[in-house]
Write a structure and sequence with these properties.
Chain A is of the alpha+beta class. In chain A, 27% of the residues lie in helices and 31% in strands. In chain A, the strands form two sheets. A three-stranded antiparallel β-sheet of chain A has the order 1-2-3, with no helix packed on it. Chain A has a two-stranded antiparallel sheet with strand order 4-5. A five-stranded parallel β-sheet of chain B has the order 2-1-7-8-9. Chain B has a four-stranded parallel β-sheet with strand order 4-3-5-6, with helices on both faces. The chains are: A alpha+beta (86), B alpha/beta (378).
Chain lengths: 86, 378
């Protein structure tokens, strides 16, 4: 849900047009502010949502393998080739 | 009520499925998920039908209502009927039946119909509000849940609750149940998809014991098709390539260490105890109890135990009900002989057909209406 207003430990959050009162009490180490997106469970924000990095360790692993292979082959690191393996 | 801002395209799910199908499986693999939300996503998207032959997905212990101790529900019913309190509980707890004689009250729903003041709630915030609005009354919050729900309950207590509010706690930890299965010698699965919301709060590290101590692949999964299939791909590829590690396929909210503030609230308000799981028994270090400092808000200490020694099958699943084996992933929901016959959401026999996180209820909602042919049953 997107945080649209904050008052102490309480926030107004909205998702798909539905507004809810949400507690930020569990977010004290990483305070949520207006415009942040939070994961909400039973009325409490439990984590901020951040852009995902690699979806699986295998993606990184395959990129490393592809880079190593490119080096072995003495070829420049070809993005199309890396993509093949990702 | 999880909401995500990160949209998943059908293409990316399909790409993960394509990669999964490209793996050459040396044998059949059974992958367990331990989260009602995962099972709902799997059942509702029809993912099982899209999997390559040789990969099975079985739901395991992912429903806190299903394993909530029968004696705790019985106690909640008796408190509501005998103590003139207001009892509040998460809505899907209300229809869970306990084992009593035929004409006795067997659920919180029935206790409410008989005059008990029982209010379904969706958040601990509502429990506090009801206690504040009724200062002359005693309010008991019957709180069952896994870590994701336990953290908000802990936050509610840590923030300070009205003097007239107490908690009847039935909070459970997820990983000890999986550890028990793995240590049983017959886990019944080859790899694990770890629960995304539990790992969001507690950190993915809790699940490292699966590859490290038991040599089984594990990946934390989210709730979109993309994240779930990525997790499935990860564990199957680990199996195929003979590598073992804990993968995090839900990185947008699952971070190393989880949510430290949430873990701290649990630690300051609760202690870890051996705990009973309905129909399964005691699992070491699998539950939470309120710390002694919170005795004034501990309904377990404030009220007498209404436990009845004469009550038959106390602590067990209802007669004929196979919920315990469903919860442990020993059988699929439609392998229970009551499924779709004696047991439906309208007339549930066991808790797995009641809770939104119960595998039987989820399978029913996804359109599975009849029990599997007996020949298929193990």
């Amino acid at each position: 849900m997107e945080v649209i207003a904050v008052d102490g430990h309480m926030a107004r959050c909205v998702a798909q047009g539905v507004e809810r009162e949400v507690s930020l009490f569990l977010m004290q180490d990483e305070p949520a502010t207006v415009g942040d997106f939070v994961m909400v469970h039973v009325g409490y924000a439990i984590q901020k949502m951040t852009p995902q990095e690699a979806r699986s360790t295998w993606e990184l692993f395959d990129q490393v393998l592809a880079a190593e292979q490119a080096e072995i082959d003495g070829l420049p690191d070809d993005p199309a080739r890396a993509k093949d393996h990702a | 009520m999880a909401t995500t801002t990160i949209t998943t395209t059908a293409t990316s799910t399909r790409q993960w499925l394509d990669r999964l199908r490209a793996l050459k499986l040396p044998r059949r693999f059974k992958v367990m998920n331990v989260c009602g939300g995962h099972e709902r996503s799997i059942a509702m998207t029809g993912l099982r039908k899209a999997l390559p032959p040789g990969i099975e997905l079985v739901p395991g212990p992912g429903c806190p209502v299903c394993i909530c101790p029968e004696e705790s529900i019985y106690q909640a019913i008796q408190l509501a009927l005998s103590e003139k309190i207001i009892l509040v509980a998460f809505g899907d707890m209300l229809r869970v039946p306990v084992n009593v004689r035929k004409n006795e009250i067997r659920s919180l729903d029935q206790a409410r119909a008989a005059g008990g003041e029982i209010v379904p709630i969706a958040s601990p915030l509502e429990a506090v509000r009801i206690a504040r609005d009724n200062p002359q009354r005693r309010v008991v919050f019957f709180a069952a849940g896994f870590e994701t729900t336990t953290a908000p309950v802990a936050a509610m207590l840590a923030e300070g609750v009205p003097a007239n509010l107490s908690v009847l706690l039935a909070a459970r930890r997820t990983w000890p149940a999986v550890a028990m299965l793995l240590e049983s010698g017959m886990p019944g699965f080859d790899a694990l998809i770890g629960p995304g919301h539990v790992a969001t709060v507690m950190g993915p590290e809790e699940w490292a014991f699966v590859p490290q101590q038991h040599g089984l692949p594990a990946a934390i999964g989210g709730f979109t098709g993309e994240s779930l299939v990525a997790a499935l791909y990860s564990v199957v590829r680990q199996l195929v390539e003979g590598r073992r590690f804990l993968d995090n396929c839900y990185p947008e909210v699952v971070r190393p260490g989880g949510n430290p503030a949430a873990r701290r609230q649990i630690e300051t308000t609760m202690e870890i105890v051996d705990a009973n799981w309905r129909g399964i028994g005691t699992i070491p270090a699998s539950g939470y109890a309120l710390r002694p400092e919170l005795a004034a808000h501990d309904a377990g200490k404030l009220y007498p135990s209404y436990d009845d020694d004469m009550r038959k099958r106390a602590g067990e699943m209802p007669p004929g009900c196979d919920c315990a084996r469903v919860v442990l992933g020993r059988i699929y929901p439609d392998q229970c002989k009551l499924y779709g016959r004696a047991c439906t959401p309208r007339n549930p026999v066991g808790p797995c057909m009641v809770s939104d996180e119960g595998a039987c209820r989820i399978w029913w909602s996804s359109g599975v209406r009849t029990p599997r042919e007996l020949a298929d049953v193990e």
